[in-house]
Amino acid sequence: MESMAIIIHWNQMESLNGIEWNQCQVESSGIIERNRMESLSNGMEWNQRIELNRITNELNRMESSSNGIEGNHWMGSNSIII
Among 6, 25, 43, 76, which residue has the least CB neighbours within 10 Å? Predict the structure, then answer.
């Protein structure tokens, strides 16, 4: 049986607040990938990847604000690690 892939790629860039979105979605394999990068005063960066075949959610958030805080977050199917 053949499977058709629907690929959606979406980019948004705004120069006022420095927001950049990248989204790639492949429905045949169930992979959704989304990236958000903000170059604001707090320097937030988001990466999110969802693999529906493996039921894995990954969420990474990195902050480099004036106090130098960095955070990485991982969410799995059975556990949450922060």
Answer: 6
CA 65, CA 51: separation in Å to the nearest integer? Answer: 30
Residues spanned by the domain of 45: 7-77
Taking only the tens place, the pLDDT of each residue in 69-81 is 444 444 444 433 3
Torsion, Cα of 3, 33, 57, 52 (10° steps) = -10
Name the one residue in this structure whose structure tokens are 């969410």.
75
Give the whole-angstrom CA distance, residue 41 versus residue 38: 9
Q: Is residue 24 a part of any domain in this protein?
A: yes
- Quick check: is 35 in a domain? yes
Domains identified in the chain, total number? 1
pLDDT digits (tens, 9 = 90+) for 55-67: 433 444 444 444 4
